[in-house]
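Aim 2, interim progress: modelling of the fe (iii) ion-bound target.
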Amino acid sequence: MRFYMPTKVYEGDGIVLKQEKLFRGLGKKALIVTGKTSAKKCGALDDVISVLNNCNIEYTIFDEVKANPPIEQTIDGANIGKGADFVVAIGGGSPMDTAKGIAILLKHGTDNHIEKLFGKTDYDAIPVLAIPTTTGTGSEVTPYSVFTDDKLKTKLSMPRRIFPLYSFIDIKYFMTMPTAVRNTTIMDAFSHAIESIINVRSTAYSELFAFKTLNLFRKHKDDLMNDNIDKDALLDFVRASTFAGVAISQTGTSIPHALGYPITYQFGLPHGMANVTFMAEFFRVSPKEMVDKVLEASGFKTTEEFAEWIRKFIALTEKRPEVKEEYLEDYAKLLSEQEAKLKSHPRKLSHQDILEMYKNSLL
Ligand code: NAP
Ligand code: FE
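Predicted structure of the complex, ligand included:
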């Protein structure tokens, strides 16, 4: 058993503005990677620019990252960031994941980018600093990046492992999240914790973080359903998201994430909601003793009660995707070919099992 999570995490009010010393040691030029508006709205971009100016560090900004980012955005970002010594990612999982890919290309060049990001040879990266603004992916403490692949019509996890060097977590940056973003990202963190526990790679160390996440969810789940999240509850969810990130940094995610990717790609169901859409079916094919532990820690008595809560919660912000039965065979095939994901599950799942999980969850 081993526990390796090298990212240094700094949390607190105004934390970025207090970190000049760390920034000074990183070089002369930075690339800031964000989405269109959220980094500006939440104040994180102003804080980062202010620290960089105080340290006389030059910077360029790539603020075009789309949700569920296409792989090609790594090239656009690397071109804007030419010569950067480090990358500062501000936003949800989309900018943080994209920044990790960009950081590889900034070190090794943009030619043959697919090979560098997805090929067999490992490539390292210039340092990445991560400033999360959503309560979900945990990308600020995970080595993972997920990109959209338009050829395969789904999302793919990059095989490179890029842990951020530093993460800066400030509650202020999360307060501008719209309810729909908050709800779906909390479901992402919730699913990370569950998929990390019901996982052959789960350890005593990863479980510590995963069960803590479930306990925080249980504490606030009624308030979450009633849209009654005050600042203290939000801080618990901010931490839960990072804790769940630490858990999956050890174990990876599992079947619900893989089932959800094509549904997010084809029907736009946000990532966190896509994961939990499949969770009750995931419980059905998982060892009962593991499921019971997860249900208890999350405050549910039975899978049926859990499934009803999830159905009601998704309906607060999302429409049910209208998926036709004939698509499901292709989606099931995509997952049947992902050996590593299937191996994370304690039981062997056949193509038929996967197809049934799709049917029972979506039709
Ligand atoms: P996201 O795609 O980064 O952002 C979703 C939306 O929320 C964007 O429109 C964004 O605006 C907005 N937003 C973000 N923070 C905000 C704030 N504080 N105030 C107002 N608006 C805000 O969402 P995400 O759920 O965090 O990330 C999802 C991606 O992460 C998916 O691609 C998923 O597959 C991946 N993921 C990665 C990991 C990992 O370990 N690396 C784990 C799970 C999932 P802007 O466009 O302006 O930024
Ligand atoms: Fe996720």
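The CA atoms of residues 34 and 324 lie 35 Å apart. The chain has a mean pLDDT of 97.
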